[in-house]
Amino acid sequence: MVPQFESFIQGGFECGSHLWPDGRRLDLSASTGHAYHPSQDFEAVAACGIRTVRDGICWHLIEASAGKYEWGSALPTVLAATQAGVQVMWDLCHYGIPPHIDVWSGEFPERFAAFAREAARVIRRVSGHSSIFCPINEISYWAWAGGDVSHFGPSAVGRGAELKRQLVRANLMAIAAIKEVDPGAILLSAEPAIHVAPQTADDAQVARYFDALQFEASDMLLGKTHPELGGHGACLDVVGVNFYPQNQWFWGGECIGRESNTYRPLRHILQEIFMRYERPILISETGAESKERLPWFRYVCDEAVAAMNAGVVLTGICLYPITDYPGWGDDRHCETGLLGYPDGAGERPVHGPLADEIAAQAARFDALLGDLTQRPSLQVTPIA
Predict the structure, then answer these.
(1) HSE toward the beta carbon, residue 163, CA cutoff 13 A
(2) Cβ-based neighbour number of residue 156 at 10 Å
(3) pLDDT digits (tens, 9 = 90+) for 19-73
């Protein structure tokens, strides 16, 4: 069964909430203004034809005291989306956990599952329907950033594989808990799709190894590897693919530009993932900054069309983030979004060229999807 999203072109509201190694908390839902103006934000994206979004709630705010849930930070967002008629894919943990919980401890998976159960219950009660959940965002990236190179919490070095297994275990327990209170919930992953190429023949083996790491988390969730974690086929309905301009690089070197013969077309990446997991795919994050946002969006859409025509079941493209945001490390104004920074009343300027392109691409995909439903069932074919 292919989940039906309300719009093919979608938008994501940043909700990262991790800790830096010095103890500072990043809260992008607050710093972008979305936490304070959810109604205006949902109405603004809906006015541009976007009726499906990614958003999140902040575990560290809701469970500020161990075992006690306070939903004041989340309820306005859930209610605003419901009133605006916007479908939400909910992140329950976007890199951030409460400071009183040890991610390395045996209780971490149980604590997250308990939170996920209550979050699903509250969201179902307020929205009145089943929802879409991505329990833990980007397990692969978090394991590297937080477990291998101490970029952000838990700020460890050389423990990435251990952190990945712990996050997978927690994700699986959360899925079971969500299904207890919302049996109709749709389950989404969101993992980076990358391409690591060797600079020399001597780098080929290590480049292949690190390229393959992108599949580990999803393989674990589905029980393809590490069956002791409890992975199984029913835990993933849609495979989310996060893909940005910087997602391809030479091992030990620079990013690979699209003009390079070494650059791997997105259509090939989507085809490989679809054939590997045999599940619908969502481009769950994509976008570029400043003058590149329009050509990058067009590139992704063109590649998506090529992949769909070759038989890949693609359910949508999520521009992420849909609002401008302050840079993680330097607070600079990152002009990535359809919507700019809000004024005092919560109104945001709309980037006209991107709004026009979204409308054009939405019409393009509506026509393509209508055409695909009239064709015989497609077999995935090699893309030239």
Answers:
(1) 26
(2) 18
(3) 999 999 999 999 999 999 999 999 999 999 999 999 999 999 999 999 999 999 9
Amino acid at 227: P
**Binning pLDDT at 50, 70 and 90, where does residue 373 land?**
confident
Q: Contact 354/297 with Cβ under 8 angstroms?
A: yes
Cis bond before residue 321 (omega within 30° of 0)? yes
Task: Judge residue 20's burial from the number of C-beta atoms within 10 Å of its C-beta, 0-12 exposed, 13-18 middle, 19 or more buried.
Answer: middle
Q: Decide: 67 and 25 in contact? Cβ < 8 Å.
A: no
Q: Give the closest residue to 172 by CA, choosing from 137, 136, 122.
A: 136
- pTM of this prediction? 0.96
**Strand residues in 5-79 grouped as ranges (E):** 9-12, 52-56
Nearest to 164 by CA among 178, 174, 176, 154: 154
Three-state SS annotation for 83-111: HHCCEEEEEEECCCCCCCCCCCCCCHHHH
Task: State how beta strands 239-242 and 281-286 pair.
Answer: parallel
Helices (H) and strands (E) in the chain, counts: 12, 13
